[in-house]
């Protein structure tokens, strides 16, 4: 039976998962993670990032990612599995980060010597020793410049799927060009983390696909190709430096001789890598429209597949390409777990006490409303903390507990209508998804079935599943995505929380009040600036 590998180069580490596929059912059989800080400490990162004097700057050494990849492959080769059974490999990577290669890179990648570790051979291929990553916020000026050239934020979003964001690659490339033109000019290739690591596997330049390329502000979202206007607004001669964009199921090549001779792999097919968010879409089973995931973590994130490239005109949501060839919407809310914890702590509660407060208060909270902006909020854009209450006494613990959860759910529901998706099913993940009371409010506010879904590394799993899909397709067999994700990326029926019809009607009304309250307060905040 064939094995498929998924690799995930996240901010803090590199994970490899292997799945075994038998009769079209995939099973996870192996997982290994290399932590950058712990296992590759000679690179000196903290949480995968090099410490910088400027808090807005976040960069990482690309050589460290290559080292992580080599170690992951070595770890799998040492496992009980026969590595020659690996039929195909794909990967997932943190989005937006960029890797700058010089003119020697192509020859160096082709001539990798299996007798020596990878990192000993590629130290000289970089036009820039460090890579800016998604946590970098140093490019506000470049965002303004790009936005101005392209005719405004709405126009950038309409063209590329997102307005110009500091972490997106265009602003990062522009900053490099402006601050170090002498290093930018001879740069032969600007890769994303995903296409850089795929290039190492195939021993030559690997292409990008629309999922990760849409995190650059440089891709024409509807066409899935580089947007000449956006390239021109970013830096000179950029078209020649970027890899081509190909469909997500494309085989970039066979595993290079380095990996075969060094670790015993066969000439496995390497499918193009994608970003972690598009890979997570597959790894959480969101392969048809109407099913979304809500991750209740440090920040709360809502994402799901969209059949068409619809855009959030308010400028907070993102649209990326989906590995299925469709699109995905993603919206991030920064007042997530820490805000729930803050409210819990403010009233001296523990989690059972928090649940009891939810149970003791009526759905709809008698129209008491809270705007939960305890920290600056991304969606909607609230630059400084601003907690607001309406018909709500700050001293009333139970009502404030209900108000914060209802506010978070109503904000998520209201700020995802731009996706124009009729949501029937929600896969709830992340720490707070263990709380059934919170999930009941989610079900009632969205009017959708909610499933508890504890996923391990969904991006890595998504990459492995993409490898299987691409491999089958290259052999002339188009396996439906619903078959690919069956069981392995689906929640169990027993975890379902169903909406209560009367409450769905109640929240439909309250959501309008919440939207009005939010709009009024945003206007006041804008006025006060
Ligand atoms: C998405 C984003 C992060 C990174 C790292 O826009 O910045 O999710 O992909 O995980």
Termini, distance in Å? 63 Å
Estimate the strand proportion. 15-25%
Tell me the number of strands: 24
| Gyration radius, in Å | 23 Å
In DSSP terms, counting alpha (H) and pi (I) runs of 4 or more, how many helices?
21
Low-confidence stretches: none
Strand count, sense and barrel status of the largest sheet are: 7 strands, mixed
Structural class: alpha+beta
Mean pLDDT: 97
The helix fraction, in percent, is: 25-40%
Bound molecules: D-xylulose
- Please, what is the oligomeric state? single chain
Shape: globular
Q: How does this model look, in words?
A:
By secondary structure, the chain is of the alpha+beta class. The chain contains 21 helices and 24 strands. The strands form seven sheets. Strands 1, 2, 3, 7, 13, 14 and 15 form a seven-stranded mixed β-sheet that branches. The protein has a seven-stranded mixed β-sheet with strand order 18-19-17-16-22-23-24, with helices on both faces. Helix 16 crosses helix 17, helix 17 crosses helix 18 and helix 18 packs across helix 21. It starts with a strand and ends with a helix. It binds D-xylulose (XUL). D-xylulose binds next to helix 14.
